[in-house]
Write a structure and sequence with these properties.
Layout lengths: L12 E5 L17 H8 L4 E3 L9 E3 L13 E8 L6 H4 L9 E3 L3 H6 L2 E9 L4
Antiparallel strand pairs: 1-6, 2-3, 2-5, 4-6
Length: 128
Amino acid sequence: MFWPDKTSGGPRYVSVGGAESQWIGPRGLFLGASLTDVEAANGGPFELMGFQNHNAGEVTGWLGGNLAAKPGDTCEFTMVMGLLSDAASEVVVPVSGVPEKVYRSASPEMRAANPCIIALALQFFDPA
């Protein structure tokens, strides 16, 4: 969890990860769920960072899908996806070669890489 200061009264960001976590996110998403599981929950593709930067695998946009924050929401659901440790280099390299590149989940490169959820998170909006 991350609090911006001691007087804020609440968290700004909550994230869970790790093999033992049993946390279930919106629409039944869980750690280890696949790219296609996330697309099904979202009702379509989404955008995520490639795997060659400090934000590796972070979801950057839900493209208006079911998982996107709606007007009046006080927080936004997000996640980080990761590549399997035994993923072949021929599927890893196309989604890892360009720092800060954003990919659509439905792209052929991301489909071939087939990442899974490694962290689920809630980011709370600034009430000010």
